[in-house]
Design a protein that fits this description.
Elements (H helix, E strand, L loop, with lengths): L2 H30 L4 H10 L2 H11 L10
Helix pairs in contact: 1-2, 1-3, 2-3
Keywords: Membrane, Transmembrane, Transmembrane helix
């Protein structure tokens, strides 16, 4: 395998990892805490994924809206 091919494969893998970190992690964390995944992905994109993750940890879970509340 040539160095150029290795570089392309490494670049694609790095972009997928960054995309996963920016989109999937905050969305899953927000969903598990009964918060809006869309809003937290926006916070992650325009702010920082680290900030979004830390804020979600600090805020904790939100009680679900429903008739039992």
């Amino acid at each position: 395998m040539s160095d150029e091919t290795f570089g392309i494969i490494f670049g694609i893998a790095a972009m997928l990892l960054v995309l996963w970190f920016y989109l999937v992690v905050p969305a899953q964390m927000a969903s598990r805490r009964n918060r809006s995944p869309f809003l937290w992905v926006l916070i992650s994109l325009f702010g920082s994924p680290i900030l979004a993750i830390l804020l979600l940890f600090a805020m904790g879970g939100c009680p679900p809206n429903g008739p039992g509340r």
